[in-house]
Amino acid sequence: MSTLSGKTVLVIGGSSGIGFAVALGSLKANAERVVIASSSQDRVANALERLKTRYTTETGSSAEGRVDSRVVDVTNYAAIKALFAELGEIDHLVLTYGGGFVQAHFKELDLSSEIARSTMDERYWSSLQAVQSAQIKPGGSITSTIGGSFIHPVKKWTLAVSALGALDATTRSLAVELAPIRVNVLWDRIPPPGGREKFIRGLDKHHLVGHVGTPEEVAEAYLFLMKCGFITGETIKVDGGYMLESVLLL
């Protein structure tokens, strides 16, 4: 089976959830170096120790010398550029951070407000800035993360849906422009932080596979996109059949 042997993987958003699972999975797939990045010094330091401990516990081997961490504000273009300048060439860039967004009826939105602009900054422009700054080796990959709301919008989420939809469309353009670097986007159906149990109780029955996905299950899709050299410009849905079930309920 294909591995990530000899590869360097950077996961921005790797301190928790899916990003953490991707970093752990990359180590297990024999990546030579895995770097996790987040905006919080405490969270990224804690995640680094948890990552080392879990890898050792689950494999019996040490991750020392193979895993590292960085602190970066994804909305700070200068900081993003400095991060990639320091790291140099990498093989795979994974973007799993979410960022916040303003939730309000569109007619009531102040589109000139800082919070409204920050939605696009955190969910769209920051991803483009990271991709533009990254030094990806030929044949490497870039994988972004979006949610399913741009396919199945709900009221008061217009700004978030716009940002996610823009990133989805940009992925195909970047795949053409950056070739032979591969560019894909993945959307998932993972419970939001702080509300996992309540979310699961409400949605378990709407997943055709019978349960809400775990970060480790979703991480397998990211690993596939990194390892498969013959896929680019694609949007991969990992939702346990949630959207199919939702259509049936309409």
From TrEMBL:
Pfam families: SDR. The keyword NADP applies. Gene3D superfamilies: NAD(P)-binding Rossmann-like Domain. One of its GO terms (molecular function) is oxidoreductase activity. Coiled coil: none annotated. Keywords: NADP, Oxidoreductase. InterPro entries: NAD(P)-bd_dom_sf, SDR_DHRS6-like, SDR_fam, SDR_PhqE-like. Belongs to the short-chain dehydrogenases/reductases (SDR) family. This is NAD(P)-binding protein.
